[in-house]
Amino acid sequence: MSEVDKHYGGDPVGLDRKPERRGDEEAATGPLDRAQEAVRDAAHNVADKASRTAEHVRDAVSDRYERASEWAHDGYESVARNATYARRRSAVEFRRGRRGVESFIDENPIMVGVAGLAAGLLIGSLLPATRRENRAFGRYADEFKRDGLRYAHDIARDVAEQGRALMGENLKGAGGTRRPDR
């Protein structure tokens, strides 16, 4: 087949072809077709850009979510480790403190009894007097309360000082506290 035949599709004279449009009709159809094609291209470009932007946003959000999730998980693990350490350490310290108090009571039973008496006097002096107490003790009640409070205060101060000294000795004997390895 010759080039002419190829060009005209086997019709060298062009009888089977539709006549080409010329003039006003071509002028009106050409720009309209080009405008439609330009609009289609622009819409396609906008859709592609929107798709790429959405994919970029999705990736960024996913990345930030993963980082925030890891941060929260690491924080939770750290808090859980610290809480476990604190629970164990407080149990050890509680047992040590209880032993210290028990040994203080064993070594100083009279002082503990006097401290209990002083606490009873203090609490009793804070309670309002009854009519029976007023009749029985009358004017001596106020003086007795004042003396009892002063005595209770002195005993409480002495016991507190001895308790502080004993606790200081116990803490020095226990040595420094060690933090868990991280």
TrEMBL record:
The keyword Transmembrane helix applies. Residues 1-25, 34-58 have a biased composition (Basic and acidic residues). Residues 1-58 are annotated as: Disordered. The chain crosses the membrane at residues 110-129. Keywords: Membrane, Transmembrane, Transmembrane helix. It comes from the Bacteria. The lineage of its organism: Bacteria, Pseudomonadati, Pseudomonadota, Alphaproteobacteria, Hyphomicrobiales. The keyword Membrane applies. This is ElaB/YqjD/DUF883 family membrane-anchored ribosome-binding protein.
